[in-house]
C-alpha cells in the first residue's frame, strides 16, 4: 500500500541540500503523476515556476512531519483507495 507524508512535511531530496515543504499530493505535471508538489522552505510558495514535484523514492531526509489528525487520516485513506482503483482500471484495459 502506498504511503503519503502529510501536507506541511519538510524534506530534502537525494543529492540536494535545499529543504522543501510538501503542499500537494498525487500531482500531475506534463502528463506524469508524482507523489508530491512542494515549495522551498522556509521561503514558501513564490510562484508557479518555483514549484517542485517528486516521488517518495526521491526523499532523502525527513525533517518534519506535517499535521496529522482524523481529517488527514480519512483524506489520505481516500486518496490511496482512489489511486488503487485507477491503477486497477488501467490494468484491466
Structure, briefly:
Helix content is 25%, strand content 34%.
Mean pLDDT comes to: 92
Main beta sheet, described?
5 strands, antiparallel
Kindly state the number of beta strands: 5
CA radius of gyration is 14 Å
User: Structural class of the secondary elements?
Assistant: alpha+beta
Strand content: 25-35%
| Number of helical regions | 1
Give start-end ranges of low-pLDDT stretches: none
Largest sheet: spatial strand order: 4-3-2-1-5
Distance between the termini: 22 Å
- By oligomeric state, this entry counts as single chain
Order of helices and strands: EEEEEH
The percent of residues in helical segments reads: 10-25%
Descriptive account of the structure:
The chain has one helix at residues 70-92, and strands at residues 10-13, 20-29, 32-40, 52-54, 59-64. The chain has 93 residues and is α+β, with helices and mostly antiparallel strands. 25% of the residues lie in helices and 34% in strands. A five-stranded antiparallel β-sheet has the order 4-3-2-1-5, with no helix packed on it. The longest helix is centred in the C-terminal third of the chain and has 23 residues, at 70-92. The mean pLDDT is 92.
Task: Describe the secondary-structure layout.
Layout: E1 10-13, E2 20-29, E3 32-40, E4 52-54, E5 59-64, H1 70-92
Which keywords apply here?
1 helix, single chain, globular, five-stranded antiparallel beta sheet, alpha+beta, 93 residues
Amino acid at each position: 500500500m502506498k504511503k503519503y507524508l502529510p501536507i506541511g512535511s519538510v524534506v530534502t531530496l537525494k543529492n540536494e541540500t535545499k529543504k522543501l515543504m510538501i503542499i500537494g499530493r498525487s500531482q500531475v505535471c506534463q502528463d506524469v503523476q508524482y507523489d508530491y508538489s512542494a515549495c522551498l522552505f522556509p521561503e514558501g510558495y513564490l510562484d508557479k515556476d518555483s514549484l517542485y514535484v517528486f516521488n517518495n523514492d526521491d526523499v532523502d531526509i525527513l525533517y518534519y512531519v506535517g499535521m496529522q489528525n482524523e481529517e488527514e487520516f480519512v483524506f489520505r485513506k481516500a486518496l490511496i483507495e482512489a489511486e488503487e482503483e485507477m491503477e486497477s482500471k488501467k490494468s484491466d484495459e
